[in-house]
Amino acid sequence: MSSYIIEGGKKLVGETFVSGSKNASLPIMAASVLNKGVTKLYNVPNIHDTQMMIEILKSLGCKVKKNQNKVVIDSKNITKFEIPENLMHQMRSSVIFAGAILGRYKKATFSYPGGCDIGARPIDLHLKAFEKLGITVHQNFGKIICNTEEIIPTEINLDFPSVGATENIMLASVLTKGTTTIINAAMEPEIVDLQNFLNRMGAKIEGAGSNVIKITGVINLKDVSYNIMPDRIEAGTLLCSAAITGGEITLKKVNVNHIAPLLEKLTEAGCKIQIKTDEVKLKAQKRLKAVNIKTMPYPGFPTDMQAIMAACLCIASGTSVIVENIFENRYKYTGELSKMGAKINIEGKTAIIKGTRKLYGSKVKATDLRGGASLVLAGLVAKGTTKVENIEYILRGYENLEEKLNNLGAEIYMIKE
Length: 417
Ligand code: UD1
Known about the structure:
UDP-n-acetylglucosamine1-carboxyvinyl-transferase, Chain; elongated; 417 residues; four-stranded mixed sheet
């Protein structure tokens, strides 16, 4: 197990950049399976989750080469249609392979995916959509066995705009004979990136970014090179790191539109924000002000920024109220923040945060990816030394977090025990 040791109280000042998006890379890596050829991906973050996707690709028979942020996937000779259970349990996104394998081979076997424990996270919407596409879904001792003679294009009305289910339907529908329409589709930027990637590969998809997506099947796909979009949650995390320490940073390689709801909240909290094409400058005030947040599907405030923003609000003047509307168990990290002196009360899906002037260095444990990042932020501003244990969660989703923060003047290092 690894931990971060953080000496708190250093203002973050300087310039840094955003890496490629984790949540865009994962479905795009799975999508490479659809083409009987070679996919070259650039700007893929070098993190545990993308490594796990590579392991799954290899287990299916793909040849994969990785060099820093470039990943080359050769999917010509896929030999297996079953995703190994141990890899399924490593991460939620493994489920996206189901749509891609089904799309190409009309059969796939997998099990229930793992991932951060932030709620029940069922996959009923994915499986219902597969059935609507004419796929037989059979469950046997924890295994989900899917097959069909032919995927039948149809109209699918999602009960909830699930990101993963939207992606799975898109992937399963690319090589069909006809048009599938997703109504109440997720509108997240990562869905747009997936559409752009698939269209570059020869697919015919329109509407991503809105709540209706149309996928018209094509017969063939072609080899493609693609540059993954910047990570909007990493962008938010770095901006919040500056905000919580009273710092001033310039963040490069950002898609500013993707982080609009966060920028609005940071402005409301008193930060001065300046925007250029793909660059954001943030200058924090002496003390942040309390703000209220409700997480919503995109374009609302992202649930993935909830814990990170909460860390900032722990030291703000006044009382903030957060309502978590997406996942029902996403406040585990608050118990750890309380050990550092934060005043947080949880009532159902609401967190009430009474701002305090100081947090204190302490020994805390990451409970999930974003909750772990929120503890790092708290450590950056806390008086004294903070030890964040279980940082494997954080390493799943952030590329070189420690190095980026240290370059901005933080004092954080990793220890392995
Ligand atoms: C994706 C993101 C994750 C983000 C989330 C919401 C990736 C790899 N992960 O996760 O970082 O927090 O979107 O923006 O892109 N649900 C069901 N049944 C289903 C599917 C989902 O009830 O079949 C529920 C979930 O339990 C959750 C809500 O729908 O309460 C949203 O889930 P979903 O949008 O599917 O999130 P993920 O794709 O898992």
